[in-house]
Amino acid sequence: MNVEYTARKYQITPTIRREVETGLNKIRKLLGDRFETKVILAVEKRQHKAEITIDPPNGPIVGIAQTADMMSAISQALDHLEKQALKHKTKWLSKKRKAGKKFDGQSLQDNLEAALGLAENATVSVLVHKFPSVARTTEVHLVHATDSVALRPMTLEEAIKETHFRDKDVFVFRDPEGKLMILHRTREGKMELIEAP
Questions:
Q1: The domain at 146-195 falls in which architecture?
Q2: Does pTM surpass 0.70?
């Protein structure tokens, strides 16, 4: 394991080096010896910043922390890096596992006994689902629509005519009894009536 140090407006002491290498030994136990390490220590506006990057075979892992003194910044960055390395290791192990055999009647009974702790061998096969890392979202634009609300009570027929006339997909109105109603045009073009409590 090679460690490359970079200091910006900061002098690296042997104590700091020992602290970094002690923390990296814990990570080495998790991921092995096959990664390069870059340590950037900087002082910016009286804040001490520690950025530690390791590069295992399946992609880089970064731990960043910023505090009032350098030792605590390094400690926090190493803690963050250790958590990320543990996630990296478990993700790698879950990909490495092979799919189990299909269940027949007897193996289902054996697995049920194992799950309840009745069997000598207490291993249970687990199916792990993978979710997308980035959820697709669309940007929300809010526009106040005053013409989608009726100012006077009206019957359902009047509200439907008004919705078609104003060419709106949602129309809010009160019926003659004062009950709040919402008309909604579906994608198929049908009108839905929603009665609010």
A1: 2-Layer Sandwich (3.30)
A2: no
Token pair, residue 2, equals 């090679």
Contact 52, 62 (CB under 8 A): yes
- What would the mean pLDDT of 181-191 be, rounded to a whole number? 84
Calpha distance 134→132 (Å, rounded): 6
Domain coordinates in residue numbering, the chain:
3-96, 146-195
The yes/no answer on whether domain 3-96 falls in CATH 3.30.160.100 is: yes
CA–CA distances in Å: residue 179 to residues 152, 158, 161, 175: 12, 15, 19, 5
Tokens for 23?
A: 């923390």
For helices 70-96 and 14-31, give the axis angle rounded to 10 degrees.
10
